[in-house]
Amino acid sequence: MRRRTKFNINPKHLFISGALLCFVLIFVSFQYKEQLSPVKTAAGNVISPMQDGINSIGHAISSQVEKLSSLSKLLKENATLKDQVSTLSYENKILLQDKYELDRFRDLYKLDKKYADYPKVGARVIDADPNSWYNSFRIDKGTDDGIAVNMNVIAGNGLVGIIEEVGKNWARVKSIIDDSSNVSGMFLKTSDRCIVNGDLELYNSGVIGVELIGKDTKVSDGYEVVTSPISDKYLQGILIGYISDLTVDPNNLTKTAHLTPAVDFDRLEEVLIITELKEPLVDIDDTKKK
Description:
rod-shaped, 12 strands, transmembrane, Cell/Rod_1, cell shape, membrane, Cell shape-determining protein MreC, six-stranded antiparallel β-barrel, alpha+beta, Thrombin, subunit H
């Protein structure tokens, strides 16, 4: 077999040859300018469209690069704006929470002024029975704060309920809507008495029951019912709610009605505890015996 002969070209020689060729072409082009004019024209006619095409492709590529650069910039700006919107939304929620809390504190302040004669302690609701309403719930104040059983609890526009159990740093409240609750009430306008009974089933309609209203009692829908002086646990004059739907009982001696509580038992977050207990009623006969 014959071995193929390898030709090794020195790069230096190749460079010199290329330079000489360029020099010769430049010399010919200047020396024979008129004779080569048709060749230049023909070459221009061939190269010009190619150059236009290359320029168009270059412009298209440049345009796409600019678009990609703009898109990348827009994506970064969009991500920044999303972060800012998220931060602003969070801050807005915090501000709304602060506003609602401030509104609640204002309501408690008004309530405190309304019953200014009674000493009070503020408390937060920390636990409630697993149903839709606050018929029984715990607060974050206890014996360490001077809280005792049978102290009255208020919120919103009036009576919430009463302390039924107390620990060192907590207490449980039974509200007036609880099935086991009954409060001796009185119509503020006429001083006629009645009994307000808790009723969770009835509270589905936003009301509880009122009974033992005298047949001849001159009251009508919207009249205010407050705690009466003969109650053994509730202090006198605390607003319970507003009367409605008066009906005469079958015995034709009394009336029953519904009462819309002055407190919204769908949501309770803060309450006031009146730290003054109702003084026990003194039996007149017992006083005479003494």
